[in-house]
Design a protein that fits this description.
41% strand, Immunoglobulin-like, 160 residues
Length: 160
C-alpha cells in the first residue's frame, strides 16, 4: 500500500489523500447506533489508520467504483483500525468508508421513504409530490407526515 496516515480530526489531507469524518451524534441524549463514516479521496493505494470506535469490530465497508458496498481489508491494532484501499477500486479516486453499520441498515438503499399519510392543522391531506393548501390567511401551525421505509429503519431522532 502507498502510505499509512493517522486520522484524528475532521479533515486530514496529505500526499494525494483526503479524509473527512462525516456525521455526529448528540451528547445530550443517547441516539440509536449509527455507522461511523468517512469520505476518502486517494490517488494511490493507501492504508488509513483510524481511531477504533467504541463498539467497532474490524468489519469495514467501502463503496466500490461500481457503487456496491463491500468489505474493506482491515485489521485492529490496539486502539487503532487500519484500513487498506486500492486506488483501482475507487470511483474517480473517491469512496466512503462505513464502520459499525447496525443491523437493519441497508447502505445501498437509495430510495426515499414513502409518505403514507399527511395532516395539515388536523385536516387530512392526500400525500403526494405537492400539497396545495389553497388560499390561506396564515401559514399552517402543524403539518404531520407519516413515513414508511421498506428497506431501512427510520431514525426519527435525526429530524428537527
Amino acid at each position: 500500500m502507498g502510505m499509512s496516515l493517522p486520522c484524528r480530526g475532521l479533515l486530514y489531507a496529505a500526499s494525494g489523500l483526503a479524509l473527512w469524518a462525516v456525521g455526529s451524534g448528540s451528547a445530550a441524549e443517547p441516539a440509536p447506533p449509527r455507522p461511523v463514516t468517512y469520505a476518502v479521496q486517494a490517488t494511490a493505494d493507501v492504508q488509513i489508520t483510524l481511531p477504533l470506535p467504541a463498539r467497532a469490530t474490524s468489519r469495514v465497508l467501502y463503496r466500490t467504483a461500481g457503487g456496491a458496498w463491500e468489505p474493506a481489508p482491515a485489521e485492529v491494532a490496539g486502539e487503532e483500525l487500519r484500513v487498506s484501499l486500492r486506488a483501482a477500486s475507487l470511483a474517480h479516486g473517491q469512496t466512503l468508508l462505513a464502520l459499525d453499520v447496525p443491523a437493519g441498515i441497508g447502505l445501498g438503499d437509495t430510495l426515499p421513504p414513502a409518505i403514507v399519510a399527511c395532516t395539515v392543522d388536523g385536516v387530512d391531506a392526500a400525500p403526494g409530490s405537492a400539497l396545495g393548501l389553497g388560499g390561506v390567511e396564515t401559514a399552517p401551525q402543524t403539518i404531520v407526515l407519516r413515513l414508511r421505509d421498506e428497506r431501512n429503519a427510520l431514525a426519527t431522532d435525526s429530524l428537527p
